[in-house]
Records
---
Amino acid sequence: MPETIGFLKPRQAVLDRRREIVADLGDLLPEGCLISDERGLKPFETDAFIAYRRMPLAVVLPETTEQVATVLKYCSRYGIPIVPRGAGTSLSGGAIPQEDAIVVGLSKMARILDIDLFNRTATVQAGVTNLNISDAVSADGFFYAPDPSSQLACTIGGNIGMNSGGAHCLKYGVTTNNLLGVKMVLFDGTVIELGGKALDASGYDLLGLICGSEGQLGIVTEATVRLIAKAEGARPVLFGFATSESAGSCVADIIGSGIIPVAIEFMDKPAIEICEAFAHAGYPLDVEALLIVEVEGSEAEMDSMLAGIIGIARRHGVMTIKESQSALEAALIWKGRKSAFGATGRIADYICMDGTVPLSQLSHVLRRTGEIVAGYGLRVANVFHAGDGNMHPLILYNINDPDEAARAEEAGNDILKLCVEAGGCLTGEHGVGIEKRDLMLFQYSKADLDQQMGARAAFDPQWLLNPSKVFPLEGRPAA
Amino acid sequence: MQTNFSPEQLADPHVAESETILRKCVHCGFCTATCPTYVVLGDELDSPRGRIYLIKDMLENGRAADTETVTHIDRCLSCLSCMTTCPSGVDYMHLVDHARVHIEKTYKRPFKDRLARSVIAATLPYPSRFRLALGAAGLARPLAGLLKRVPFLRTFGIMLDLAPAALPVSRAARPAVYAAKGTPRARVALLTGCAQPVLRPEINDATIRLLTGQGVEVVVSAGEGCCGALVHHMGREEQALQAARHNVDVWLKVAEEDGLDAIIVTASGCGTTIKDYGHMLRLDPTYAEKAARVSALAKDVTEYLATLDLPEREPRGLTVAYHSACSMQHGQRIAAAPKQLLKRAGFSVREPAEGHLCCGSAGTYNILQPEISAKLKARKVRNIEATRADVIATGNIGCITQIASGTEIPILHTVELLDWAYGGSKPVGL
């Protein structure tokens, strides 16, 4: 595929010292923590944004914060770029390396360090998966709320980097609303701690700055997160509609009426068919659009909230309403939804968009998205967090066909511009990464970006951490 | 995922199949989370996604296998947990099968590894040789520690460690037709297996007693051999295909004589392979159709028993930790049936945490990858013991020997407990 997004030109001085760097890293780390063989490096050349690939110079898999610090200190001394990697599930290319970079993978740092049910917090190493946290406290009636669809595999470190969201964030907020503290390593190897077990820390709210900084301000090695008590009961309900527009306006009216369910998820017909084939969740196949609305609380609370939602849905001509009857059925409904992207792989390659729009614009943006993609001669499947307007059009294409791949990328750019024009933004939860970097100027003024880059420079004056991402290559300060 | 094969490469049906499999992978990374070796080692190269990438690179470049690639493919347990997890439906099983054959053809292992693998391939699949070897192992056991200190002989030391201290007195089910009690309702063939009748002959006895008691005629066919799984997973394609053809002939002969409703398999590892005969022999014009017939007939014993509608039994006050073998839950996707049968038979069933993770047995894995295998065993035993069950039930002989070596809780084949509940004698060891 002809690449339209550029990476920074590799630093020749670093490439020239490759052999020496690898030998030094081998000395600094225990056995089994360094990958430098060309064959072994290949699988690290991309993440879940597979249209772009770059081989790293080496991959290190440290086992402790001290080892991360040692590596970063070494890299800053010799001006070697660093690309942090959690589980490599980024849909925006946040973990794609570059030829002169050392990938610092946190996959060996996957221990849960402390569970404090009294204070409702968990402290974990950055490589712990999102779901592992909830699994560890589930028997005690707690969970960690932000639930990206990749929660089975994605790590808490990656979630912090991208300020990840998820279906249940409508009620509980995204990562930044559930993060209490971090231990992180700065570019020069300094280890700092931010926040703690309390809800607010004195001084600047640097934690808010770190969350969503895409691995450019440091490498988080430990995180303390908030645990939430599970509700008495939870019930996902399926609402089928004859058109995407009516489903979209129904969502706007539910939220507009002041009702906040735990989740409102949207799927259009192609997405319903894809997910049903994988999960056999019992999604209605005779509708054009489906909303999964989950309510929680006591039976009476759920009934009362549902009655309100059903009333609104009827006004929008809902065709079918189906409540899940068992925990198993509820689990299948969510399994299908959360596997949507991967399951799309059964029928085509895809690029997943992440624009967010005001709910009043949802129907309009959905319709325009369909027109844009059709205009490029491609198909689209929509499956997204409707309740907070976070859209995920999946543009279906054949990655082995360079022309289709180029059209898919152009269609994606047009859709993201549409989201911004509609008063929304480029990314709801997947991060800017490499994918949306060059569109940042469409969203922000130069002054906006300069201020962000200034904050970045305060943490990483040499621009060594994940340097090809987030900010357009032109207009950066001279390093 | 993007692939890059030339039309000439794709003319090879094996490469063409692998290309189709690779095209389905979207590199989402879900598989890493449920892969036992990734969970234990924390290196993406030891995860399905990493291995898929290594295999893709090797095949695309038409390259001989190299040490790095072989190391990580060898560490794959073939537990197929990734296939249960994969939302895109990537057929990892057949991709890694192809990679193993490619490795076997293009890579020369160090002499000690070749020796160990040859010994395994020439012993385990043959009950008489296996019994003889275990007898000898009993005598040589004091040497295990010494052997393990010599790098060259290490694998043999490990094998001695794994050999049971005492063998059951041989009373393996003989080839015969075991008549159904009462009105016959079906006729099935029973694969008696190779390692299982040597280590636990009680399993086949219990199966025959239980099935005949339910009105099913059971045929143990003369001449059936190893299913081929052990050598298949070592990439010894021809030896595996020969085993498959041989068994296809044996069973279809039984079917032609007097009809056959099912081929019952009591080791889920074998079941996974027999159910794959149709695929393994798809390119063999003489056998393709016959093998597909055999695969369609193959049923795990619990899968078959679930169709018989066994009567409900009073609670026995015995708690059973059910360990689902990987070949059962991931290979054959049989998850609920064994637990339902046990509950119906009056047992209280508990499910250990991390039930999707392998116990580390995985065919010859505990011999060839002892360190990873030991870590997985310890983790599995910890999770099972946390259930505080009275007994462990599972459906695969490999898991039985592996888990038994790590815990004091008795472990039985599911069918032994069912046989007991439906009139058989109390299982040995309970």
Note: Chain B has 26 helices and nine strands.
---
Amino acid sequence: MTNRTFVLACLTPLLVFSVAFLALPLVRLFLVSGESEAGWAIYLDILRKPRYLNTLILTVLVSLATTVAALAVSTTAGMFLSRNRFKGRGILLSIMTLPLAFPGVVIGFLIILLGGRQGLINQITPGHVVFAYSVIGLFLGYLYFSIPRVLLTVMAAAEKLDPTLEEAARTLGASPFRVVVDVILPGLMPSLIAAGAIAFATAMGAFGTAFTLATDIDVIPMVIYTEFTLSANIAIAAALSIVLGVVTWALLLLARSLSGTTVSAGG
Amino acid sequence: MLNSRTKLIQLTVTLTACAFLLVPMILSVMAGVTANYFQGISSGLTLKWVFRVWELYADSIFLSLWLAIACLISTLIIGLPAAYGLARHPGWLSRILEEFISLPLAVPGLALALALLQLYGSMKGFRISWTFILVGHVLYTLPFMVRSILAVLASMDLKTLEEGAASLGASPWQRFRDIVVPNAMPGILAGSLTVVTLSIGEFNLTWMLHTPYLKTLPVGLADSYASMRLEVASAYTLVFFVLIVPLLMAMQWASARAQRIAQ
């Protein structure tokens, strides 16, 4: 066997698998989306019909809020953890990366323990405080999911920042605020955009968390799921899946071109 | 460093975030070993909920472990030679192929599952077998395996090593077995641990692909959250934590090690 045929043989299982179980199914999904009475206009319907348009807007808003909050929290914590060495730092870091392995359903359940009817907040506050099944609960679930991922991206970038630049800025009389705005944030910017894109894309497509929490909230993954299982409206489920997939894929492509690394979306 | 007030704000944010992540985990563990969660810890500690979980859901735990092993073997068989092929032929075609098989990292599992169901849903024998779920898991974890091995292979001078071996008369298969595989070991280890961890925790695809007779651990979890009392759901989550946390730690250790070697 020659070199060339050996290398080709090495790639064959991958090619066969990804054509059979990735390329062909995705093509089929796309074709199915055009098979309803609406035809290909179904993609316009997503923007025209209030039910789908509202779903789209709500999903984007919750995802944006998650992204902003996760960036704020994780950048602050990430800078702190990468610039300071103290007792317990390792433990804090472990706690903050532990949720990486939790599927969305488990995170949904953790939010229920916090804000459900038997939840901690409802028990320690007077009155009836239940937020797990509201948009706030969903937002907290997405935030829980995103904090570890954004944190790791930010910390990897923070390790590469040159601390002498900050020192130079300070000796030139810059206030701490100006150091953050003029030195640290510009240095972190590519990673922050990348991490933000990851957080946003993950929140847009998060099914597990929405499955446990968003029983009454219309976010895209839940609408896809209910259209498919309950209404058997397969064309619209397929069309929404295609739109969702294209959006998250494009965002993560942007993220990777900016940071060179990816933390898995999943969820 | 910045002044101490800034530091104090940073510390507060960090600790608040930690509390937000940790407190629900503690609540979950507590609820899983408390006799009656509504009455609180004073009702006594017990393992009866864990035993109940074992009675109800042991099958799901074994299915998940079995799937994880099958998924590991499949991703090794497909991913290891593929990573070698991609490393030996870096070029635009390889880039596109790598990009393409990485789609499942970006496209939500729900969409992939729908796609699989549209194409193979009518093949009844396949649809109701455990291999249908396996396909979903392999689809999702394969890019992690390929990239993990590829990163290690790309960092070494594979061509020179192989030319040396070839000049001594080694066949392509011998070179693959005796040079590529041993050198790729850190990447294989990191990739394997990632695949197993992700497979055990996979929900999005599995929920759509599973049948009532084939419930994996996360599918069982979703089931218990919807229909069981809080203590049972918590105990089940506790079992999941016990399984997944050591795996995550091993995976992080192996990935850091592979990254160091790749640099």
Note: Residues 122 and 128 of chain B are 10 Å apart (CA to CA).
---
Amino acid sequence: MPDRAIGRALPRDASRRLVAGGGRFLDDHAERGELHAAFLRSPLPHARFTLHTDAAAALPGVAAVLTARDLAAVCRPWRTVSKGFPGLVSPEQAPLADGRASWQGEPVAMVLAASRAIAEDAAEAIDAAWEELPAVTDVQAALAPGAPPVHPGLEGNRAWGTTIRHGDPDAAFAAAALVVEERLVFTRHTGVPLEPRGALALWEKGTGALTIRLSHQMPHQMRLHLAEQLGLPVNRVRVVAADVGGGFGIKMHVYQDEMAVAAASRLLARPVRWVADRLESMLADIHAREHVVTARLAVDAEGHMLGFDVQDLQGLGAVSVYPRSSTVEAMSLLRTLGAPYRFAHARARIDSVLQNKVPTGQYRAVGAPIGCAVTERLIEKAAAARGEDALAFRARNLLRAEEMPLVNGFGAALHGLHHHAALEKARALMDLPALRAEIAAGRAAGRLLGLGLAVTVEFTASGPAIYGGAGVPVAATDTVVATLEPTGEVSAQASITEIGQGITQGLAQVLADAVGVPAGAVRVEAGDTAAAPHGGGAWASRGAAIGGEAAWGAGRALRAQLLDAAGALLQAEPGTLDISDGAILDAAGTPRMTLAELGRLMLFRGHELPRGVTPSLSAAFHYRREGDATLANNGVHAALVELDGGSGLVRVLRYWMVGDCGRVLNPLLVDGQYRGGIATGIGEALLEACRYDADSGQFLSGTLADYLLPMATDIPDITLGHVETPYPRSAVGAKGAGESGTCGAPAAILNAVNDALAAAGGGAVTELPIQPVAVLRALGRLA
Amino acid sequence: MTPARFAYARPATLDAALDMLAREEEATPLAGGQSLVPMMAMRVARPALLVDLNALPGLDAIEATPGVLRIGALARHAAVLDHELVAAEAPLLALALREVAHPAIRNRGTLGGSLCLADPAAELPACMVALDATLVLASAARGERRVAARDFFAGLYATARRADELLLRAEIPRAPGWSPWFEEVARRRGDYAIAGLAVMARREAGRIAALRLAFCGVEAAPRRLPEVEAAVIEGRDAAALLPGLLAPLGSAEAPAAYRLHLAQLLLRRATEHAHAAA
């Protein structure tokens, strides 16, 4: 019996090609006769404008200068609407702003020219008259009485709000032996994939068909939106997302500039290419995670958590992102709040606020890092107030596996979580007694060391009920089509997309086991809507949990077809046959023919098959999970940090994470995702911030010299551990892993920094990222 | 992020380069390009003519005369960092260059480029002031001109170099008995300094006899601070003088009060080191 492929640390099939520079990203493709696009973007957060484009259009090499009205002829506007967010205020969007820009960086005109350089020259040559309008960028100022409206005619800047109440929070807080409160401020981040967004559109005049390459996480979704906005039959639109250099949620939305490229190609009947440069990416990619959260936790005399009371103010930007709505982040925050723990009472107020800023959207781990940070900070405060070890406090309050399934007060559906096992594993990995001794010795020597913990729950692999129920056309089901080649290999097309995370390798391993071939004999491709079947693409850490099931189903269906054919040929009952290592085995386990022989016979020598037997070389499987709306996973994070009491800089010395993502398809892929996710969280905790000038509303973090990403020297050694609890109601049993590292790292580091500050007799930091200035202020060393 | 239109020339001789600078008012010399090229890509810099200096012979020489160490303007950071003469005669530069960006940038970036750009956060301008270096400039019209480093740096990205001049080299006095100290604070390894301090001190008979210092990253341009130097020598609280003397820059990630705090921190560390070593 050969080794199973699932669970093996096989290197990715694509690694050699990508590492050797053989990747073919959007910018590596070209179309003959293509025009290069550049956008004129609003330099102001809010302004009326008039444009005179004659001089720009007259420059040599310029084919066209387009404004909102030009593109309106071929592209309909869109507006974010969701039954999940009734009453959401989000204005209509079109590819280009028409006479008024509502955020700095919004595209207002588009130049098409023989080269990008000429297009940029012409964009500069557009004579634009800007009339600055009052702008509001601060989330609290936006809600203040008399605040300037983000869009004219708005009565207020609240886009959406909701109140949630469960149990009897008033009584719980009144009766509590202890109530702790914290106000935490979270600054905007953005995703910064290595490959920027871009589009290369080819309009076929004769057929009225559009082929467009996008650097995107969900080609099928974009196909639908492109068809709808451009008024085309869906089957006349082909979206190709080939190699994609990272997504992180940045590439799952409908953007004005990308839609403008498609519309311009149609309008001019010419191929049009546009690749965002880094300045455009920083300015016009979605941002995320702008929240001010005020939260209280009630605890009884025995140290049991009673309930939470939370107010969240979320900054949305100028519109709610299309099609999913930016408000999803606030709901994700709420669902993760307190989610690892037992509590009976809950109250929450969410206000999502419009601002004259680039829209926010779903970014790696969505609201979970904030929900986790708020929860874990409150827990540290409660344990400190009780004078007990925060680990003991957590152990007392963490839900036990046998208490689930349950739906908690914030509506989170919890099932199959093993917090106590993960906590035990983390303690062992950390060698906690030795670590604590080391910290004590360091502190005695004057070092500002801190240890921080966080327990996570993350809701992955969303099922159809969530967006389906909200009336938003987002696919949560996926399909794999598996084909036996006449040479015995298996090829497959998946609707899950490959964005650098390596999921096609994971799916190949699933297919290998499902069919009975070596993993090296399977090749999975994705990303081209002309070849790949319908499905959701890459979001919500769904590749293994949903795509894996589709791959398993397709592999098993193909196996059954092949056994039927083999049974007919070998005059054996198919049920007595098996496929292993690429060969058909009989009941005695004796190889009778290879899949290559079978495949050649099926394809080229069909006349040898018995009458009535017409087996297919291909099998499709469409997976739809019933029941659980999401697959919750869990983890334990710990960070050891050192503060520099002089400069206020924070260094993460060591990091530990134990995760349970169900069945691990390939530990190399999962560990890579965990580590990368932790790096994202370290950036979030210590470095990354999209800042705006308080007076002018100007964006201040527009280059990578201003927006500080963590670099290799900022990432410590990371020790990983796994608890593997397969999801029982699926064949493969995987849950999501791609965002878990990000969920817990900000909380663990926040707690670690505050642990170091407390040990030094300092105050606390309550704003992410933790700036050195804040550390010094907490230490009383800077006014 | 493509540059505005520009003309490009790659002169083979210094005279030809100086002629180009004299004829074309909007000419900009290109050395290593590690700052200029990104600035052009962002259209912050828009030279009409780019005069590429990389074909000029001998402009990257590092050599010692009896009195001075000469470092050619085209010497790459990596070459300066690794040079034996620099280690022997101006080790302050080696200390500071370790903090300058990353190896790939140091392989292309040049001494002259850094000095003439005069980024307020750059390490080398502060080092030149602390080293009491002389900068030698040349123009077609006026020949060579010598400017003390302390008079060269005039403000944010502003120097005494005139538009028709090229920086040829820095001349650093060979100073036996002087020892260097350099430290800086940056958010990430290799980032521009939020604050840095370059110090040269000479000790005699167990005490500090002379001292020169200059900050980088703190003010618009590096400068000597005689009152502060005197206070360090005399063992008074020099850091307490800084709030009254410095005009720190402020930014989104590093407000002025933070830069002042770091300047004081670095000065205290440097003072402690100077006295301990003395």
Note: Chain B touches chain A at residues 1-5, 42-43, 185, 187-192, 252-255, 257-258, 261-262, 265, 269 (CB under 8 Å).
---
Amino acid sequence: MNGRAREGGAAGGGAAADDLSFDVAVVGAGAVGAATAFFAARAGLRVAVLDRGAPGGGTSSAGEGNVLVSDKDIGPELDLARHSQRVWREELAEHGHHWEFESKGGVVVAATLASRDALRALTARQRAAGVVALDVGPDELGALEPGLRPGLAGGAHYPEDAQVQPVLLVAHLLRLARAAGATVLPHEPVTGLLRSGERVTGVRTPRRSVVAPAVVNAAGTWAGEVAALAGVRLPVLPRRGFVLVTEPLPPTIRHKVYAAEYVGDVGSSDAALQSSPVIEGTPAGTVLIGSTRERVGFDRRPSRAALGALARGALGLFPALHAVRAIRAYHGFRPYCPDHLPVIGPDPRAPGLWHACGHEGAGIGLSAGTGQLLAQALTGGPTALDLAPFAPDRKGLAA
Amino acid sequence: MPTPVESGTSELRDPRDPRDPFDVAVVGAGPAGLAAAVTAAAGGRSVLLLDAGERPGGQFWRHPPPAPGSAEGEDTVRVHHDGARFAALRRALAHHVARGRLTHRPGHQVWLVTRDEDGFLIESTPVHPGTAPVTRRARARALILCPGAADRQLPVPGWTLPGVMAAGGAQALWQGQRALAGRRVLVAGTGPFLLSVAGGLAEAGARVVGVWEAGSPRAWASRLPAVARVPAKAVEGLGHVATLARHRVPYLTRTVVREVLGEDRVRAARPARLDAAGRPGPAGDEVPVDLVALGWGFTPSLELPLQLGAATRLDADGSLVVTVDDEQRADIPGLWVAGEATGVGGAALGVAEGTLAGLSAAGRPTEGRAARRLRARIAAHRAFARAMHLAHPVPAGWSDWLRDDTVVCRCEEVDAATVRAAHDTLGADDARTVKMLTRCGMGWCQGRVCGLATALLASHHAGRAPTEADLAATAARPLAFPVTLGELAELGDEEGGFGGDAVGAGEG
């Protein structure tokens, strides 16, 4: 991006006293927005991050903090996940303790011979793409995870799978971004876009105008509404998921453990409730139990069907959890695109508008790579990974 | 499916098929719940009364099991000043149970309520597992939630020492088990409830070395009209004052506990005077005590109404309460809420609200003279409660008595400095974010103890008053109580025709 906007004076005069001017305005202070702000600020851009609520208070606060390669088949999303792995482990390594980065590894288990064979085929493809994926025989599963029920057909071990605490991630990325000069504006909903002809030249909030030649739409589940402000269609839909949290336990479950069927559920587009068990311990001692997926809009009430399915799924893998108590449940809305790929890059339909959204359930893990790549693009440089598969006007997003 | 055989204390077996809905379910058997249940049953409705307690009465009318050879109820008439009202409700309960109109399930902790097109589904778990078979699931066309309230607590240096209790907890220990938690007792905090606790403990034989009231009696002066509408409350208050005078209990106003001292347990407490802005001054001399009972009012239990998505508001005491109309209806079709959950106001108000809710839920007339009298009584008690709340606020400068290492969240051992750092270092400006960054309120009790303090500190650090959202962040619990995964696994697994939920495609 060329040319820095000047501080204060919005082009054209008549600016209110509170008006601000930046190089980049990031809409949405979730993990993706925070990572974008961090990398852009570190690249020397003057950045504002706006959120309609509290930073990290949306989808970022409602997941498990997954940083996974295991649940992705070969393709652009796996490429982005592998790129993100490098960013987490290299550029962000010195900060990892702030957000409890834990390279705990993932264990995928298959209950039947058929699902084991499908898993074997998946790991072979993933290995060819550079993922460390180790096939595990039924007798070796107990050594990896002693609590797993006997009689499983086999599994796979993914040492690169990791976990972060996503709310800490957002708070510390924003702290680091502020240290690099970024401005964080919480509780400021974007109600409109500033336009100059076709171009998007900033955002409007109830409090002020924020002039910026680049506006990044990192609004997660609400990204479609931000895009609509620019008159462009972006099909990002909420896909609800519940997580159960148990009472704190002594270290019981070492890895992120999930059923091979999870990969299929992630890739499905069915609106009805789907559930496949995902179980893991946390540094606090609690065990997190996912996962459900259903398209029910923004319904925030507890769901009997989802909570029951989570518990049954967990007991199916770890029968000894039967008498363990759940103390909490929470839910969130994954920002889901019909072709299950995120949207990253400039929108040719509305020059000045960029997107970093639609990461569905993988947004925490993909945030690091997304933010870094977008910062590279915003500064006009080459990107370390080709963004074409994530283009906003790609065929997979057509109505 | 659990077997539909009823438990314990009731002689009657409950042959009801859990798929068969009750007309009205009432959760909570305190003053409001008891009144609601017997009123709905008297209206000819089939009623289910679910309560965590083993005996009806809730926190207000807590009473020990009857002594061998004596009948249930003899004791309580003496213990409670409004025991006659309680006795009448209990007689009505027994009457309707005997006629099969009312099913009473004591010892059942309700942990989830959901609503579908047929009404409400209610999940409960036994408070004492393994004692008797229980019916875990029930269906009802209408639901009256009377979940009551819990002691409000504020952290103070030393409050985690054994021997520091919530005022209501100290009273409950005496009323429920005839156990005295200490011999030299200090009662502190704010509100008329302190007088009741101190008087009760003094009558029970404890040496009450003082009542330290943060508020000022002068605060009542401008609110006398509200007091005059409820003369019984004034009489009740004067009774407590007389009791304290008889036991020579010193009563200090504008005084708070600055810190509690002790090594393995409480040894002493130090007072501080509050200035006009509600800020504590320096700590005074040690007062030797072995029990400190702290009461800052009550926090309504809103888990169940919030599970259903009921609308809420902030009450005069700063509590989050359910918004109800003039028939105690919440904004969810088929849902009524009565008692402390609609605004803390005491047993008499609870009975009136419960009665009105019972009439309304049973489809009985709510326009006649009797109903008008009920509404007048509710209005008078609410006005009194409002006056009380305004006269006894949490001191504005309470957080000044915290030290950096004062524990705010006991479950997760989060101290005051950590909570402040969430704002100062990480920019957290609301209770939910503070909670998620620090784990304050995320432990076993899910914020029941530290929720108010977390909300107050988060908003204080952000330089603003607490909002509904701050309080909801520590009051909403999608699981109202901890429940085993084994019990959860039965959810959404109902037989055809029951539940109406899609059955999850879970593995295993």
Note: The longest strand of chain B covers residues 108-116.
